[in-house]
Amino acid sequence: MAPTPASPADDLLTVRDLLRYAVSRFGAAKLAYGHGTTTALDEAAFMLLEGLSLPIDDLAPWLEARLTRPERETLLGLIEARVTTRKPAPYLLGRAYIQGVPFRVDERVIIPRSYLGEMMMTGALAGDGAGPVPDPFAVERVLDLCTGSGCLAILAAMAFPEASVDAVDLSSDALEVAKLNVADHEMGERVRLLQGDLFAPLKGQRYDLIITNPPYVAQGEVDAFPAEFKAEPVMAHLGGADGLDIVRRILRTAGDHLTPDGGLLCEIGTGRDILEEEFDLPFLWLDSEESEGEVFWLTARDLAGR
Protein backbone atom coordinates (compact mmCIF):
# COMPACT_ATOMS: atom_id res chain seq x y z
CA MET A 1 0.00 0.00 0.00
CA ALA A 2 1.36 3.41 -0.96
CA PRO A 3 2.06 5.75 1.95
CA THR A 4 -0.47 8.51 2.62
CA PRO A 5 0.85 11.84 1.27
CA ALA A 6 1.98 14.19 3.98
CA SER A 7 -0.32 17.10 4.77
CA PRO A 8 1.04 20.61 5.45
CA ALA A 9 -0.87 20.37 8.73
CA ASP A 10 1.68 17.77 9.87
CA ASP A 11 4.52 20.28 9.83
CA LEU A 12 2.92 23.70 10.27
CA LEU A 13 2.29 23.79 14.00
CA THR A 14 2.28 27.42 15.13
CA VAL A 15 0.69 30.67 13.98
CA ARG A 16 4.12 31.75 12.78
CA ASP A 17 4.40 28.60 10.65
CA LEU A 18 1.00 29.23 9.06
CA LEU A 19 1.81 32.91 8.50
CA ARG A 20 5.03 32.08 6.64
CA TYR A 21 3.27 29.45 4.58
CA ALA A 22 0.38 31.77 3.66
CA VAL A 23 2.66 34.63 2.62
CA SER A 24 4.64 32.26 0.40
CA ARG A 25 1.49 30.84 -1.20
CA PHE A 26 -0.03 34.27 -1.78
CA GLY A 27 3.16 35.62 -3.30
CA ALA A 28 3.54 32.67 -5.66
CA ALA A 29 -0.09 33.02 -6.74
CA LYS A 30 0.32 36.78 -7.41
CA LEU A 31 -2.90 37.64 -5.62
CA ALA A 32 -4.40 41.13 -5.73
CA TYR A 33 -5.23 43.03 -2.55
CA GLY A 34 -7.19 46.12 -1.61
CA HIS A 35 -10.08 44.80 0.47
CA GLY A 36 -8.80 45.95 3.82
CA THR A 37 -5.18 44.89 3.29
CA THR A 38 -2.49 45.90 0.82
CA THR A 39 0.18 43.18 1.13
CA ALA A 40 0.43 39.40 1.32
CA LEU A 41 1.65 39.68 4.91
CA ASP A 42 -1.29 41.81 6.04
CA GLU A 43 -3.73 39.55 4.20
CA ALA A 44 -2.29 36.45 5.83
CA ALA A 45 -2.33 38.04 9.29
CA PHE A 46 -5.98 39.07 8.90
CA MET A 47 -7.02 35.63 7.72
CA LEU A 48 -5.25 33.82 10.54
CA LEU A 49 -6.56 36.10 13.29
CA GLU A 50 -10.12 36.24 12.00
CA GLY A 51 -10.05 32.51 11.24
CA LEU A 52 -9.10 31.85 14.87
CA SER A 53 -11.62 34.38 16.25
CA LEU A 54 -8.79 36.44 17.73
CA PRO A 55 -8.56 40.26 17.89
CA ILE A 56 -7.31 41.45 14.52
CA ASP A 57 -5.27 44.43 15.73
CA ASP A 58 -2.05 42.62 16.70
CA LEU A 59 -0.63 39.30 15.53
CA ALA A 60 2.52 39.39 17.66
CA PRO A 61 1.11 37.88 20.90
CA TRP A 62 -0.04 34.78 19.03
CA LEU A 63 2.90 33.99 16.77
CA GLU A 64 4.29 31.15 18.90
CA ALA A 65 0.90 29.72 19.81
CA ARG A 66 0.61 26.04 18.87
CA LEU A 67 -2.58 25.21 17.04
CA THR A 68 -4.76 22.16 17.27
CA ARG A 69 -4.97 20.02 14.17
CA PRO A 70 -8.57 21.10 13.42
CA GLU A 71 -7.46 24.73 13.68
CA ARG A 72 -4.53 24.10 11.33
CA GLU A 73 -6.73 22.31 8.82
CA THR A 74 -9.32 25.11 8.91
CA LEU A 75 -6.70 27.77 8.30
CA LEU A 76 -5.03 25.78 5.54
CA GLY A 77 -8.42 25.41 3.89
CA LEU A 78 -8.90 29.20 3.99
CA ILE A 79 -5.43 29.80 2.57
CA GLU A 80 -6.05 27.32 -0.24
CA ALA A 81 -9.45 28.87 -1.00
CA ARG A 82 -7.89 32.33 -1.19
CA VAL A 83 -5.42 31.08 -3.80
CA THR A 84 -7.73 28.87 -5.86
CA THR A 85 -10.91 30.99 -5.89
CA ARG A 86 -9.25 34.42 -5.81
CA LYS A 87 -12.13 35.61 -3.64
CA PRO A 88 -11.21 38.47 -1.28
CA ALA A 89 -10.46 37.31 2.26
CA PRO A 90 -13.49 39.07 3.82
CA TYR A 91 -15.82 37.01 1.63
CA LEU A 92 -14.14 33.78 2.72
CA LEU A 93 -14.41 34.79 6.38
CA GLY A 94 -17.72 36.65 6.22
CA ARG A 95 -16.30 39.65 8.02
CA ALA A 96 -14.76 43.04 7.24
CA TYR A 97 -13.71 45.91 9.47
CA ILE A 98 -13.69 49.71 9.29
CA GLN A 99 -11.79 51.45 12.09
CA GLY A 100 -11.96 48.22 14.08
CA VAL A 101 -15.75 47.94 13.79
CA PRO A 102 -16.85 44.55 12.36
CA PHE A 103 -19.42 44.08 9.62
CA ARG A 104 -20.88 41.03 7.95
CA VAL A 105 -20.13 40.71 4.25
CA ASP A 106 -20.81 38.29 1.44
CA GLU A 107 -20.96 38.42 -2.35
CA ARG A 108 -24.18 40.46 -2.24
CA VAL A 109 -22.28 43.59 -1.14
CA ILE A 110 -19.07 45.41 -1.91
CA ILE A 111 -16.48 44.90 0.83
CA PRO A 112 -16.38 48.02 3.06
CA ARG A 113 -13.25 50.16 2.67
CA SER A 114 -14.42 53.78 2.52
CA TYR A 115 -12.37 56.79 3.58
CA LEU A 116 -15.58 58.25 4.99
CA GLY A 117 -15.58 55.72 7.81
CA GLU A 118 -12.16 56.89 8.94
CA MET A 119 -13.20 60.53 8.75
CA MET A 120 -16.30 59.98 10.85
CA MET A 121 -14.78 57.71 13.47
CA THR A 122 -11.59 59.71 14.05
CA GLY A 123 -13.36 63.05 14.47
CA ALA A 124 -11.65 64.46 11.39
CA LEU A 125 -14.86 66.12 10.24
CA ALA A 126 -15.11 68.14 13.43
CA GLY A 127 -11.53 69.37 13.16
CA ASP A 128 -11.54 70.70 16.75
CA GLY A 129 -14.62 72.71 15.89
CA ALA A 130 -13.22 74.13 12.66
CA GLY A 131 -14.10 71.27 10.30
CA PRO A 132 -17.13 70.94 8.03
CA VAL A 133 -19.16 69.31 10.84
CA PRO A 134 -17.93 71.24 13.90
CA ASP A 135 -20.51 69.87 16.36
CA PRO A 136 -21.40 66.17 15.90
CA PHE A 137 -24.16 66.49 18.50
CA ALA A 138 -25.97 69.08 16.37
CA VAL A 139 -26.51 66.60 13.52
CA GLU A 140 -30.04 65.26 13.83
CA ARG A 141 -30.68 63.62 10.46
CA VAL A 142 -28.18 61.78 8.23
CA LEU A 143 -28.67 60.21 4.82
CA ASP A 144 -26.33 57.49 3.54
CA LEU A 145 -26.72 57.01 -0.21
CA CYS A 146 -25.54 53.72 -1.79
CA THR A 147 -25.28 52.15 1.64
CA GLY A 148 -24.36 48.61 0.54
CA SER A 149 -23.65 46.62 3.70
CA GLY A 150 -24.93 49.50 5.83
CA CYS A 151 -21.49 50.08 7.30
CA LEU A 152 -21.35 53.86 6.81
CA ALA A 153 -24.90 54.34 8.08
CA ILE A 154 -24.01 52.44 11.25
CA LEU A 155 -20.75 54.36 11.69
CA ALA A 156 -22.67 57.62 11.17
CA ALA A 157 -25.04 56.63 13.97
CA MET A 158 -22.00 56.06 16.19
CA ALA A 159 -20.29 59.31 15.19
CA PHE A 160 -23.39 61.50 15.48
CA PRO A 161 -25.06 60.41 18.72
CA GLU A 162 -28.25 62.46 18.30
CA ALA A 163 -28.88 61.54 14.67
CA SER A 164 -31.37 59.26 13.01
CA VAL A 165 -29.98 57.77 9.81
CA ASP A 166 -31.69 56.84 6.55
CA ALA A 167 -29.72 54.41 4.37
CA VAL A 168 -30.64 53.90 0.70
CA ASP A 169 -29.49 51.34 -1.83
CA LEU A 170 -30.77 50.22 -5.20
CA SER A 171 -29.92 46.57 -4.48
CA SER A 172 -32.43 44.63 -2.41
CA ASP A 173 -29.78 41.92 -1.94
CA ALA A 174 -27.36 44.44 -0.41
CA LEU A 175 -30.07 45.66 1.94
CA GLU A 176 -30.56 42.12 3.23
CA VAL A 177 -26.93 42.16 4.37
CA ALA A 178 -27.33 45.69 5.74
CA LYS A 179 -30.31 44.47 7.77
CA LEU A 180 -28.07 41.88 9.45
CA ASN A 181 -25.46 44.49 10.28
CA VAL A 182 -28.03 46.89 11.70
CA ALA A 183 -29.28 44.10 13.94
CA ASP A 184 -25.76 43.06 14.97
CA HIS A 185 -25.01 46.62 16.11
CA GLU A 186 -28.44 47.10 17.70
CA MET A 187 -29.14 50.14 15.53
CA GLY A 188 -32.66 49.23 14.49
CA GLU A 189 -34.18 52.25 16.24
CA ARG A 190 -31.77 54.71 14.63
CA VAL A 191 -30.95 53.35 11.15
CA ARG A 192 -33.74 52.97 8.60
CA LEU A 193 -33.05 51.01 5.40
CA LEU A 194 -34.75 52.07 2.17
CA GLN A 195 -34.66 50.44 -1.27
CA GLY A 196 -34.55 52.69 -4.32
CA ASP A 197 -32.55 54.80 -6.74
CA LEU A 198 -30.67 57.53 -4.84
CA PHE A 199 -33.16 60.12 -3.54
CA ALA A 200 -36.26 58.49 -5.08
CA PRO A 201 -37.62 56.82 -1.92
CA LEU A 202 -37.15 59.90 0.29
CA LYS A 203 -40.17 62.00 -0.77
CA GLY A 204 -38.53 65.40 -0.34
CA GLN A 205 -37.08 64.79 3.12
CA ARG A 206 -34.12 66.93 4.18
CA TYR A 207 -30.98 66.08 6.12
CA ASP A 208 -28.28 67.84 8.09
CA LEU A 209 -25.68 65.57 6.50
CA ILE A 210 -25.63 63.45 3.36
CA ILE A 211 -22.79 60.93 3.10
CA THR A 212 -22.18 58.79 0.06
CA ASN A 213 -19.62 56.40 -1.32
CA PRO A 214 -21.28 55.80 -4.70
CA PRO A 215 -20.06 53.62 -7.57
CA TYR A 216 -17.26 55.67 -9.14
CA VAL A 217 -15.07 53.34 -11.20
CA ALA A 218 -14.74 53.95 -14.95
CA GLN A 219 -15.86 51.28 -17.39
CA GLY A 220 -12.33 50.60 -18.65
CA GLU A 221 -11.05 50.05 -15.14
CA VAL A 222 -13.91 47.69 -14.31
CA ASP A 223 -13.17 45.72 -17.48
CA ALA A 224 -9.55 45.33 -16.34
CA PHE A 225 -10.33 44.29 -12.76
CA PRO A 226 -8.38 41.37 -11.29
CA ALA A 227 -10.43 38.41 -10.11
CA GLU A 228 -10.66 39.69 -6.54
CA PHE A 229 -12.51 42.83 -7.60
CA LYS A 230 -14.63 40.99 -10.17
CA ALA A 231 -15.96 38.92 -7.27
CA GLU A 232 -17.81 42.00 -6.00
CA PRO A 233 -21.15 43.22 -7.43
CA VAL A 234 -20.35 45.19 -10.57
CA MET A 235 -23.13 47.70 -9.84
CA ALA A 236 -21.28 48.69 -6.67
CA HIS A 237 -18.27 49.74 -8.76
CA LEU A 238 -19.39 50.89 -12.18
CA GLY A 239 -19.98 54.62 -12.52
CA GLY A 240 -20.17 54.90 -16.31
CA ALA A 241 -17.58 55.69 -18.95
CA ASP A 242 -15.53 58.00 -16.72
CA GLY A 243 -16.84 56.71 -13.39
CA LEU A 244 -18.75 59.85 -12.42
CA ASP A 245 -22.27 59.38 -13.79
CA ILE A 246 -23.82 58.72 -10.38
CA VAL A 247 -21.75 61.46 -8.70
CA ARG A 248 -23.15 63.93 -11.25
CA ARG A 249 -26.70 62.87 -10.44
CA ILE A 250 -26.05 63.33 -6.73
CA LEU A 251 -24.59 66.79 -7.25
CA ARG A 252 -27.61 67.93 -9.26
CA THR A 253 -30.13 66.76 -6.67
CA ALA A 254 -28.50 66.77 -3.22
CA GLY A 255 -29.28 70.43 -2.55
CA ASP A 256 -33.00 69.62 -2.59
CA HIS A 257 -32.50 67.23 0.32
CA LEU A 258 -30.31 69.29 2.65
CA THR A 259 -31.34 71.53 5.52
CA PRO A 260 -30.16 75.17 5.19
CA ASP A 261 -27.00 74.47 7.22
CA GLY A 262 -26.49 70.94 5.91
CA GLY A 263 -23.75 69.51 3.73
CA LEU A 264 -22.77 66.71 1.37
CA LEU A 265 -19.76 64.45 1.99
CA CYS A 266 -18.91 62.34 -1.06
CA GLU A 267 -16.12 59.93 -1.97
CA ILE A 268 -15.25 59.90 -5.68
CA GLY A 269 -11.85 58.27 -6.12
CA THR A 270 -9.65 59.99 -8.67
CA GLY A 271 -12.17 62.14 -10.58
CA ARG A 272 -11.31 65.48 -9.00
CA ASP A 273 -10.08 67.20 -12.17
CA ILE A 274 -13.15 66.14 -14.14
CA LEU A 275 -15.59 67.45 -11.54
CA GLU A 276 -13.79 70.74 -11.03
CA GLU A 277 -13.82 71.40 -14.77
CA GLU A 278 -17.45 70.40 -15.20
CA PHE A 279 -19.06 71.99 -12.11
CA ASP A 280 -18.63 75.57 -10.98
CA LEU A 281 -18.71 74.65 -7.31
CA PRO A 282 -16.42 75.48 -4.36
CA PHE A 283 -15.37 71.89 -3.64
CA LEU A 284 -13.61 71.47 -0.30
CA TRP A 285 -11.31 68.48 -0.73
CA LEU A 286 -10.66 66.50 2.43
CA ASP A 287 -7.71 64.18 2.97
CA SER A 288 -7.50 61.11 5.16
CA GLU A 289 -4.50 59.11 6.30
CA GLU A 290 -4.60 57.07 3.09
CA SER A 291 -6.21 59.40 0.56
CA GLU A 292 -5.69 62.83 -0.95
CA GLY A 293 -8.31 64.68 -2.97
CA GLU A 294 -10.73 61.74 -3.17
CA VAL A 295 -13.44 63.08 -0.85
CA PHE A 296 -15.25 66.40 -1.19
CA TRP A 297 -17.52 68.52 0.97
CA LEU A 298 -20.16 70.95 -0.26
CA THR A 299 -22.70 72.89 1.78
CA ALA A 300 -26.39 73.36 1.06
CA ARG A 301 -25.61 76.94 0.10
CA ASP A 302 -23.00 75.76 -2.38
CA LEU A 303 -25.54 73.45 -3.99
CA ALA A 304 -28.50 75.84 -4.00
CA GLY A 305 -30.10 76.12 -7.43
CA ARG A 306 -28.35 73.12 -8.93
From TrEMBL:
Gene Ontology biological-process entries: methylation
GO CC term (a single one): ribosome
Domain Methyltransferase small: 140-223
Keyword S-adenosyl-L-methionine: yes
Protein's name in the database: [LSU ribosomal protein L3P]-glutamine N5-methyltransferase
Source organism superkingdom: Bacteria
Gene3D superfamilies: Vaccinia Virus protein VP39 (3.40.50.150)
Gene Ontology molecular function, alphabetical: nucleic acid binding; protein-glutamine N-methyltransferase activity
Organism phylogeny: Bacteria, Pseudomonadati, Pseudomonadota, Alphaproteobacteria, Hyphomicrobiales
Keywords for this protein: Methyltransferase, Ribonucleoprotein, Ribosomal protein, S-adenosyl-L-methionine, Transferase
Pfam families reported in the protein's UniProt record: MTS
